[in-house]
Prior knowledge:
By secondary structure, the chain is mostly helical. It has 6 helices and 2 strands. The protein is globular, with a radius of gyration of 15 Å.
Amino acid sequence: xxxxxxxxxxxxxxxxxxxxxxxxxxxxxxxxxxxxxxxxxxxxxxxxxxxxxxxxxxxxxxxxxxxxxxxxxxxxxxxxxxxxxxxxxxxxxxxxxxxxxxxxxxxxxxxxxxxxxxxxxxxxxxxxxxxxxxxxxxxxxxxxxxxxxxx
Length: 151
């Protein structure tokens, strides 16, 4: 995982004021991806990919709430680095879990490698995504109440 300041210095992220509507839409998207992962008959790879997308969007909420947006390639690395930089010191294991899961997601999504995810891995991913969701939504409520759609 990269260091946040390196992304800033290399102008791979830019500062941009966050909007409540954007955060709200991202929260809705997270719920949609999580729900999609639970559809009966969905292959494990698709469920895993959907859950990874939910994690990505959750970490993107952190980056946007802090006033940053990805500017160039490496969006996934940037949003997980943002999570790690802004709130994950207490959750370092979780940050590394999602960093590692991105490698498997890459194989599924870009290398089209079928049958590489087990139901146990999907369950583990689901547990970590739910944990991440709780952490980030609590953080959002506490640190950016103006961006909390539930206020």
